[in-house]
Structure formats: C-alpha cells, structure tokens
Amino acid sequence: MILSKFALKSKQFQQPVRVAMRAFADVEVEHLAGKWATYGDLENYKQGKYQIKTFNKISPVGLSRFPDDEYDIRDQDKEAANAHAILLRSHKLQESDVPQTVRAIARCGAGTNNIPVPRMTELGIPVFNTPGANANAVKELVLCGMLLGSRRIVDGVNHMKSLGEQGLARERVEKDKAMFGGRELKGKTLAVIGLGHIGSMTARDAESLGMKIKGYDPGLSVGSALKLPNTIDLADSMAAAVAGADYISINIPYIKGENGTHGIIGKDVISHFSPDAVLLNFARGELVDSEAMKEFLDSGNGRYVSDFPEDLLWNHENTIILPHLGASTEEAEDAAASMAADTIINFLETGTIVNSVNFPNTSLPDRPEGAVRFTVVNSNVPGVLAKMTEAFAAEKLNILQQINQSRGDIAYNVLDISTEGHDDVLSFKGVQEKITMIDGVVSTRIIYGTPGKGYAKNIEGVYFI
Ligand SMILES: NC(=O)C1=CN([C@@H]2O[C@H](COP(=O)(O)OP(=O)(O)OC[C@H]3O[C@@H](n4cnc5c(N)ncnc54)[C@H](O)[C@@H]3O)[C@@H](O)[C@H]2O)C=CC1
Ligand SMILES: O=C(O)C(=O)COP(=O)(O)O
C-alpha cells in the first residue's frame, strides 16, 4: 500500500487516502480515480462504470447506446456527484450542475446557448452537439410555419371550436370562411438566413413547392452548399436577402456578446422587410428584437411565427407561437440522443473528439495493444508539448503515436505510450502527476480500458485525482 499524495480542497475531506498500487496485469493506474472523495458521495458511486448525468427527457433509444455493464445513467432526479459526462437538451446548465469529475458535455441537439461554453472551455471540458440530427424535424415545422402564416389556419380552427360550442358549426361554416382567406406559397419568395443543416433543407424543399429562394450565410459550408437548389439567389448581406421576400426563415445560432447574434433581426434588418412579410423563427427567440418586431407587426400585415415566446410578442394578433416544438419528434429525439451518446462513448473510451463546439477535432488511430493512452488538455501556449514529451522521456516511456490540436485558447493532445519494460504502474502514475502539474495543463486522462478511471486535474496549481 502506498500513501498517495492527495490534494484536498474541501475542508470536510482533509484525510489523505490510501491507494492500492498493483502490478500492471491488474492495473489501477488511476491511483484513486473514481474516488474523487473531495467531491462528495462515495456511497452511491459505482466503481468501474462511467456515470452519465442527464437533464431533460432523453430518448431511451439514445440512452440504450450506453452498455449497462460500463455505464450508469442518472437522470436529473438522481444524485450524480461523480458524473463523468453530462447529456442534456435545453436545460439551462449552471456551473454548479457540473461536478469537477465531468470530462465532457453533450447537447442532444444543435443549439448550445443553454450551456456556459466559454467557462467549460476554461475548465477543460469539451462540449459536443449533434449537427443535423434534428434538422429534418425543424425543417418540416418551418414549412408548416409558412402554411400557418399564409392560410389563417389557427384563427380558423379557433373559430370552428367557438361555433361548435354554440351549436352553429354547420350553419355558419360556409358563410364565415370568407373571414379566413389566405395566400399560396407557390411563386412567393422565401429568404433563408443561415444555410446550415436546417436552412439548406428548408431552401431545397421550399423550392420544390414552387417558391423562389434567396439565401444569406457568410459561413456556408461545402456540405450545405451541395444541398441548396441551384436556382437560389445568394445575397451578400442580410438586408439584401430579406428585401422583397414574402417569407423569411432564420436558422442561425444564438450567440451572446460581441459579434454575437443577439437581436440581429432588429430595426435595421426589419426596415427592409416587405409590409406583409412573414418571419419564421425556429432558431431562438433572442435573435429577434421584440420591440422592433412589435412595431413592424403593429404597422402592417406582417406576421411572426415562432417556436419561442417573447413578452411583447406572444399574444400579438399577428403572431403564432409554438412551445419550442422544432425538435420534438420521435425521430429527431432518437437521432440526436443516439448521436450524442455515441460521441460521448467515443470520447470517454478513446479520447476522440468530433462535433465539439469548443475543442478541436482530434482523432488518433486505435490504441496499440499493450499501450496506455494519455490525453492532455492544456492552454494553447508555447512550450507545454515540449515539457510533456520531456516528462515521458525522463521516465523512459516511449511515445508510439501522438496528435496535438488546438482551437482558440485550448489545446488537446492524445498520446499512446508503450508499456514495454514497465510492468508496474508507478512510472505512469508519476508521469501523469508531472504532466498534470505542468504550468498551463488543465487536466489529463489515462485510458487503458477501465471505465471511469484515470482522470487528474490541475486546479489552480493543486493536484486532484
Ligand atoms: N426549434 C428547435 O427546436 C430547434 C432550433 N434550432 C436552432 O437552429 C439553429 C440552426 O440549426 P442548424 O441548421 O442545425 O445549425 P447549423 O450549424 O447547421 O447551421 C447554422 C448556419 O448559420 C450560419 N450563420 C451563423 N451566423 C450567421 C449569421 N449571422 N448570418 C447568416 N448565417 C449565419 C452558419 O454559417 C451555419 O451555416 C441552431 O443553432 C438552434 O438555435 C436547432 C434545432 C432545433
Ligand atoms: O437542437 C436545438 O437547438 C433545439 O432547440 C432543440 O431543443 P430540444 O432538444 O427540443 O429542447
């Protein structure tokens, strides 16, 4: 038995912890991992499983991707003080929802504005989403929204209910229908702002309904461009795209702060709307400046169809508001949860990063037999990689393959280390501590096939395992 160095922040756990260190055949390289005694609840923690904390109702089809023998799924009513990953939908995630043990967060969906992503980046936690998984569901509702905005369907349905209650439905139906006339989509112009997964499919399908399509997206990807109808008129500004359009669909992310998209559909853009334009907002309520929109709706025949209630707009006579139903189909819920689960499994078990909104795509070929895999999250500053490789060399540990990627202020490394000639784990334990404590390193993992173990963090110069 070896008495580990064990840094403790919380006053309630001021006792050092004894750890069993065994021969490599029965490796416990994590030297305490999975205990995280500093962070509470040992009783409910199951050794040897990844603990996944979920918020919102996540599709059981998606959750079934997590093998029972390696994953312990805990919904938001269950305690999960030692969660290794978080899976959520629109839950507004607080930092206090994220225990120190969390290695990753996945949004079963597209928008990550409900997650404090910059803070998670500082904490070294990759945030993932599921690009395209729910896009078809949203596109169908946008098409539905155009019809709702054209044919006075909601008013008509409400009127029929009220007539029915008075016993007048049959008597009045033919006479009253004149109050609910509408217009057709065919031949009208739709402007699509944001031609990503949802926008590109909306453009394509609206064209097949006989509409003329304009579009605006300064960050158009090749994949999305290939889906666009070849008759699309691509504008070079939002104002140019919306000018003269009968319908405008916004399908862009909501990003707070400077250069963000808060209130991007404001007075300026709205001043280019046709007086009877229908704005479809199945992206986020905060993208639209409510006051400017209300002014527009008050002054003409324009309409607003949205998936999000806003104080000034929800009961305006020219608005139709839905309760954020865009992604609420069985198909979309299954697809988004499955993709999120696969992404988390891949990250936890191999360190691979795909579809992250704050970390670089990173993938190394499979870990060779007998190797252990180190992953390191560090600040993107010069010299950290050199210190890391020096630390391995000092322990005579051979790097078999490695990859180093960066994105903004963060860098991520995956390194496979040969275990040849190292049949005890001390060198790995020692080198993990050394690497974790290099200035600029945020966290490290050793992946060798045992769920839930091998994580270490450098929290303000203190070593946590
Ligand atoms: N109502 C609902 O239930 C759902 C809503 N959404 C919302 O829709 C948004 C878009 O979803 P996806 O199409 O899947 O995302 P996506 O990432 O595939 O597409 C977004 C597109 O917007 C473009 N863009 C960003 N800023 C722009 C700007 N200022 N002007 C013009 N284009 C801009 C990007 O270049 C990208 O091509 C999400 O961020 C989310 O907020 C997504 C899914 C469900
Ligand atoms: O994917 C998105 O961005 C959505 O808005 C879907 O939200 P939901 O998962 O239905 O709460």
TrEMBL record:
The Gene Ontology terms for molecular function here are: NAD binding; phosphoglycerate dehydrogenase activity
Answer whether the UniProt record assigns the keyword Magnesium to this protein: no
UniProt keyword Oxidoreductase present = yes
Q: What sequence ranges are listed for the domain ACT? A: 373-449
> Which keywords does this chain's UniProt record carry?
NAD, Oxidoreductase
Question: Which organism was this protein described from?
Answer: Cylindrotheca closterium
Q: Which domain of life is it from?
A: Eukaryota
Its EC number(s): 1.1.1.95
What family does the Swiss-Prot or TrEMBL record give for this protein?
Answer: Belongs to the D-isomer specific 2-hydroxyacid dehydrogenase family.
Q: Which InterPro entries does the UniProt entry name for this protein?
A: ACT-like_dom_sf, ACT_dom, D-isomer_2_OHA_DH_cat_dom, D-isomer_DH_CS1, D-isomer_DH_NAD-bd, NAD(P)-bd_dom_sf
For this entry, the protein name equals phosphoglycerate dehydrogenase
| EC class name | oxidoreductase
* Reaction catalysed by this enzyme: (2R)-3-phosphoglycerate + NAD(+) = 3-phosphooxypyruvate + NADH + H(+)
Gene3D superfamilies membership: 3.30.70.260, NAD(P)-binding Rossmann-like Domain (3.40.50.720)
Give the record's pathway: Amino-acid biosynthesis; L-serine biosynthesis; L-serine from 3-phospho-D-glycerate: step 1/3
Q: Which residues form the signal peptide?
A: none
**Pfam families in the cross-refs:** 2-Hacid_dh (PF00389), 2-Hacid_dh_C (PF02826)
